[in-house]
Amino acid sequence: GAFYNGKRLAMRDRADFADLRISCNVDKYGVGESVMREQMKFLGDMKMEFESVRDNGSVYDTAVMLKGGYGAAIFNAGKIWDCVPVDIIVEEAGGVATDIYGGTLDYTDAFKKAETGVFYSACYAPPKIHKKLQELIHKNGPPSPRGWGGRERG
Question: Is residue 145 over pLDDT 70?
């Protein structure tokens, strides 16, 4: 299990998303204006579904999520150190940890990918919230700045 100050962490799942806050970062990282506009449209679509969408892009967001402050955390273009330590904690707390498109997170050749500028995506949430996020992402998900941890959008 995952613990915080001696208390077991348990992610709170729910089917009502109207008052839910999520963290979803969008990073520029050398993309053109049209890709950036698509990413901002995606954030707008997310805002129509949830109470609040925060664009912080920090591993801190996952800590806030694990303590109940956010219902989910999405990394559009994270570094490996933003994702690896969080995966097991999220799963141990009853959440789902995938890449942004719901696939298995792939850290094969992570250092080589980091050297060549590959970024990682991640989607962390309790099961019902994760399912809703995947529906939204597959409908109108953000385009990749670079990489997706070696996986292209599709």
Answer: no
